[in-house]
Amino acid sequence: MGKIAAMDLGGTNIKLGLFEEEYPAQLIWQGSIPALSQEGILRALNAAAEELRANLPVGSEIRGLGIGMPGIVDIRRNRLCSVNAKFADAVSFDFSTWCRRTFSCELAMDNDANAALLGESTWGAGSGWRNIALMTLGTGIGTAAIMDGRLLRGTHYQAGNMGGHFVADPWGPLCTCGNRGCLESLAGSREIEKRLPTLSGYTKSRMGRDGRTDMKALIEACQAGDAFANREFDRLMSLYAAGIINLIHAYDPELVILSGGIMQSAPVILPELQARVWKYAWTPWGQVEFAVATHPNESVLYGVYTLFKEQKI
Q: Nearest 5 degrees, angle CA 102-CA 6-CA 62?
């Protein structure tokens, strides 16, 4: 029996899945391994392949592989054109040859945010919508867009993907991409956790007393009436809203899907973002709808499965 394997190559963890070959998508197994991206793309791929084989049902074989990963991905040649701070050696790597040698099958790959949106638009929160923008709020900030039912990629495969590097403050901190004041450098969870302890008021705040810098701790401190936490929460919501408004002004979506680890606090964050976006976005036709991803941990897996199936039809 044939199975389609899926990989979501994150900078911290690699999420893995096995799907039944036939539509509709049936995720029969999922797992995760450490990425250890500093050790290189080949080590990561081989470790992922070993884990997939170990969990392949008896009598089954892998007949296709889909990979989603950060960076600008040429989906026609299955090549990584550029990446920022993760799997730097992957730019020169031949993924298709590795796939054929490892699994004796064909490969489909795309940027991870594109894959996440494809997964959500086909099997999740975006089903039935033809104009969608997605923003993932996590270690980094990823974006993607669908216009008139088609995933936006552009001539050089970077259209829709650069929302994390919208400049929110030209005088802001240096981003890992080399620019200053990118949204990701101001509001990605990695940067939040580095920045908070350096701010005036942190030490005396509830967060400082607990020695915590994560979003959950920030929200808990807000709910307890902590002034420092409320100030920082307001700043972050303004930054996220600005990024979403930029997506709306650029791509004219009817629906915005929010995903990523930060959206584990969706009951608190979503109403705040909706209110700010609805107030400031220039949408004379009406209000953009919001949704939280149906499959926040698996949407990339669903997306690369779908991409593989669509490319092989």
A: 45
Could you read off the pLDDT of 210-249 as tens digits, one per residue? Answer: 999 999 999 999 999 999 999 999 999 999 999 999 999 9
Please count the other Cβ atoms lying within 10 Å of the Cβ belonging to residue 310.
11
pLDDT digits (tens, 9 = 90+) for 52-86: 999 999 999 999 999 999 999 999 999 999 998 77
Is 309 within the bounds of a domain? no
Q: Is residue 300 part of a domain?
A: no
Are 159 and 68 contained in the same domain?
A: no
Distance of CA 195 to the CA centre of its chain: 22
Distance in angstroms (rounded) separating the CA atoms of residues 256 and 267: 16
User: Domain check: are 185 and 70 in the same one?
Assistant: no
Same domain, 78 and 14: yes
Category of 128 on φ-ψ map: left (φ > 0), alpha (ψ -120 to 50) or beta: left
Place of tokens 């009406």: 286
- Tell me, rounded to whole angstroms, the distance of Cα 74 from its chain centroid: 18
Q: How many CA atoms lie within 13 A of 226 on its CB side?
A: 22
Domain hosting residue 197, numbered range: 127-292
Residues 100 and 158 in one domain: no
Q: Quick check: helix, strand or coil at residue 14?
A: strand
- C-beta separation of 47 from 35 below 8 A: no
Whole-angstrom Cα distance, residue 168 to residue 176?
A: 15
Of 202, 201, 150, 194, nearest to 173 (Cα)? 194
Pair (178, 64) in one structural domain: no
Q: Please state the pTM of the whole predicted model.
A: 0.94
Could you tell me how far CA 252 lies from the centroid of its own chain?
20
What are the b/e assignments for 80-91, b being 16+ CB within 10 Å?
A: beebbebbeebe
pLDDT per residue as tens digits for the range 92-143: 899 999 999 999 999 999 999 999 999 999 999 999 999 999 999 988 899 9
**Beta-bridge partners for 65:** 5, 107
73 domain residue, yes or no: yes
